[in-house]
Amino acid sequence: MSYTAPIKDMLFVMKELAGLEDIATLPGFEDANLDTAQAVLEESAKLCGEVLAPLNVEGDRNPSSWKDGVVTATPGFKDAFRQFAEGGWQGVQHPVDYEGQGLPKLIATACIEMLNASNLSFALCPLLTDGAIEALLTAGSEEQKQIYVPKLISGEWTGTMNLTEPQAGSDLALVRTRAEPQGDGSFKLFGTKIFITWGEHDMAKNIAHLVLARTPDAPEGVKGISLFIVPKFLVNEDGSLGERNDVHCVSIEHKLGIKASPTAVLQFGDHGGAIGHLIGEENRGLEYMFIMMNAARFAVGMQGVGVSDRAYQKAVAYAKDRVQSRPVDGSAKQSVAIIQHPDVRRMLSTMRGLTEASRALAYVAAAHCDIAHRHPDEAKRAGHQAIYEYLVPIVKGWSTELSIDVTSLGVQVHGGMGFIEETGAAQYYRDARILPIYEGTTAIQANDLIGRKTVRDGGKVAKSLLAGVAETIGALGAQQGAAFDSMKTYLTQGHRSLSAAVDFVVTNTKGDPNAVFAGSVPYLKLAGVVLGGWQMARALLVAAEKRAEDPSFYGAKIATAQFYAEHVLPLASAFEASIVSAKGGESVLALSEDQF
Amino acid sequence: MSYTAPIKDMLFVMKELAGLEDIATLPGFEDANLDTAQAVLEESAKLCGEVLAPLNVEGDRNPSSWKDGVVTATPGFKDAFRQFAEGGWQGVQHPVDYEGQGLPKLIATACIEMLNASNLSFALCPLLTDGAIEALLTAGSEEQKQIYVPKLISGEWTGTMNLTEPQAGSDLALVRTRAEPQGDGSFKLFGTKIFITWGEHDMAKNIAHLVLARTPDAPEGVKGISLFIVPKFLVNEDGSLGERNDVHCVSIEHKLGIKASPTAVLQFGDHGGAIGHLIGEENRGLEYMFIMMNAARFAVGMQGVGVSDRAYQKAVAYAKDRVQSRPVDGSAKQSVAIIQHPDVRRMLSTMRGLTEASRALAYVAAAHCDIAHRHPDEAKRAGHQAIYEYLVPIVKGWSTELSIDVTSLGVQVHGGMGFIEETGAAQYYRDARILPIYEGTTAIQANDLIGRKTVRDGGKVAKSLLAGVAETIGALGAQQGAAFDSMKTYLTQGHRSLSAAVDFVVTNTKGDPNAVFAGSVPYLKLAGVVLGGWQMARALLVAAEKRAEDPSFYGAKIATAQFYAEHVLPLASAFEASIVSAKGGESVLALSEDQF
């Protein structure tokens, strides 16, 4: 059940694909060179491999539990969280001014991948706290920042996001929680929030709930939602803890996976009102929440990468160990380890290729985010921000959708043993299933990709990325060999398919929205497959050049790129057919409701 | 959590695609006309919908349990099994001579689909008993048949298949269980069998274990395996029960799904030897077991169809009920039921299309099996048998692989609620995960499809099926409209891809087996996608002709066929690329073991 962080691949991606050395030239990131990255990753790998990974199965067998409003985390989690906090891991990417480490998101992303690979349930607590920190830094008052952010970064307190209500899931316009002004600047909140991850627990002294609610005269719909901070324990002016606030966990859910992570139903104001404070301006809550959500969505994408890698590592270990059947080519008379069988190879290579591609795409996105924040040139910043924002729904949607396939293949590699819970492969399959749902389902990501990220700028960002793909195809053209041949062929086809889809989306969204949205998720997946393939092609070019330096590592990069070209990229034309050629989604919408 | 058997679609497939009326002209099947089929299906639907479907969730929450060697089935199962047995449902397809109903496999297949849709765990017990009956009818002595088969058909006793041992899963050459002759014609068996489905339980008075074992002088490998019948209670000459035999359940597994179905570890001979009798001839056990396995594999394919349909029905019900978000086309100012949203439509249509296609292909296969058994012309029988045998691994492998996608989409349609176990959607996702593993993993099915079913006859059967596809494409050519246009385009492409793959397999398996087996599962899936699409095309032709008779039903058939053409069939060219164009599987096999 162990986990070994793939530091070598992470550093390869950071250096060769995401441009860490360029990031380290940005103001404030001067120390963030490859040596720093390596040192940070090695420390992170220790904590994740030694402390968090072994607790993962414990969390599945002995989930966090609820009793009389009190939630007790899985045994071992509280101590692990203390080690996590003391190591400063919550603050990797947060500002030095608030006692963070101020490192680039690119480096933090690798740490976040490790955290999730080792223990998805555990990682969710810091993930939500990161979101709360982001929101406070963006929209909080100076006082709020001073009180909350250092405590959140130190791990003394944790944060949550309270969006969902029973009638308001994907559709936040339906939020009904009320916030009544008390005349002293504070509000009293009343309502029920569900699906609140780590909404109650015993790992930290206080919990800062960020809560969407409506003030009395707020307009209907999403433009009448405000954001409040509601601490579990009220906070005195000196930052010490006061009375217990009127927010209570009335139950936690019994879930398919990530069982150690308590999913709380929170009741606000059943005993007189939960005291909260407005963050930023009234009625701009959704806007602020989107800041948290973008960070959280990217991080959930990393959960997909992390659990995929974990499942891959486990499947490889089993395949090397399990002896069964003679080779199909008759090369041995005896049964061999199943990793020798072509179909097991195909499964492992699929798992590996998808994991590497989704990792590379996410790290590249993180680097764009870093440049967007730190580059001295405003136009540059805006350009990189736009690319980052285009990539976020893809990192979230594609990496998590493929984590289901990868963890499912992980079970399959184990054969009958995979279905036995003691083996552990099934946990990843169960855990992964939430990833394409929370922080916005894949359809919600795809709507975002179409509406805000593709149509709004007339496909400009999408086409700039496609130009990058074309440039890489050009570079491939100068090279010889089977890997390059396959990559050229299928990346060219992928480029054509994604271009056609972008044109289709840009041209038709306004006039025939149903036709476009019928292919929304296929468009998102197509973008993931092609842009992920682009990173594999870039890796191939680097690996071919450096092969002699480290034949095993770079040789594996080349083979994996070739595999991805031949087994993943061909899907692009199938997606294109479904999106573009399918006559405006006619068949998707043909049935009346009662024909289903 | 209810289940409504799709009798109308089942009868449509039986009549229009599988040729029930022709089956009813075969000797012995004279009564098996459409009226009979309808009456049988309606009765079966009652039992499945009213008795078995409600027990499905109970089995998940309260699995069968083990204590001191005794396994107690989930509460309610014993009584349900009594009703199942009394209704004569175990005997639907078995010979009248042994108190079966002697109906065609085609009709039995619909009953088996219902049984599995309503309760996968429950259905496994009759599924294994069917296998035991088949094996006894084929290879048992007259005495064995007389003693065992009527009791198995009546449900007084049940049957099991004992193949797997800890070191022998896919690789039966490694079976080590010993059978020592006692001089009186009986044997004493010693060994451990694992993963024995319904290997011990309290629903019937006796259990007939069919066990693979080796006699003392048997040759090594698969040619030294014999088949034995080892009853839980010894059977006296008059058929009454004697002493408890020395076969004991030492534990049952803690599994990801199908929790009501006890998966037993059986210990043979720990107290002096388990008394068994040889079935058929020594050392021919694997051959006989293959008879059971072919029947069981087909039935597991039906498990895939069944659980897919169940997940589809549940997702549709939720999507009609759950109100969330306004339509993307602005056609309503209020939030609408999520079934109105294009992406939910796409998910439901994918679930529906895959379920209908896999159902149709399986029923068509069952009809070939019926003709193979009953046609007066020997050459005809052989021809249909060959087609049936080609289709079995596809029905097994493809229907079960797609059931994972379908049940996963079922969770996704439910959003966050899908991840909560109380909702029930997650159970199908967990239950389905075993289907591509047991009774031979998808890779094992694909090896069978390549070796025995495609290469051995030089692709003759595959090409005869492709000729059928071409004929249907011709018939589509005469028709107008978007559904026909799409189906023509993508079925033609699919035909081309499958033809290319068959040629590749036939040409290269001998000379470059690794290259072919690297694409074995893609070949199986390609065959499923295209041959399933063929059935959808045939359904489209019928539906277009009859549309006026029942516009809602046939209109839905047309739309579903179009959807399948546009969203599923395009995958064919991606599979072709992976199988044929990928330069002999080079990238699959490029990495050395330690590069993983």
Automatic annotation (TrEMBL), chains A, B:
Ranges for domain Acyl-CoA dehydrogenase/oxidase N-terminal: 78-156
Residues annotated as domain Acyl-CoA oxidase/dehydrogenase middle: 161-270
InterPro entries listed in its UniProt record: Acyl-CoA_dh-like_C_dom, Acyl-CoA_Oxase/DH_mid-dom, Acyl-CoA_Oxase/DH_mid-dom_sf, AcylCo_DH-like_C, AcylCo_DH/oxidase_C, AcylCoA_DH/ox_N, AcylCoA_DH/ox_N_sf, AcylCoA_DH/oxidase_NM_dom_sf
Cofactor names: FAD
Stored Gene3D superfamilies: Acyl-CoA dehydrogenase/oxidase, N-terminal domain, Butyryl-CoA Dehydrogenase, subunit A, domain 2, Butyryl-CoA Dehydrogenase, subunit A, domain 3
Acetyl-CoA dehydrogenase-like C-terminal domain residues: 469-582
Residues of the Acyl-CoA dehydrogenase/oxidase C-terminal domain: 283-449
Keywords for this protein: FAD, Flavoprotein, Oxidoreductase
Family label: Belongs to the acyl-CoA dehydrogenase family.
UniProt-recorded name of the protein: Acyl-CoA dehydrogenase
Organism placement in taxonomy: Bacteria, Pseudomonadati, Pseudomonadota, Betaproteobacteria, Burkholderiales
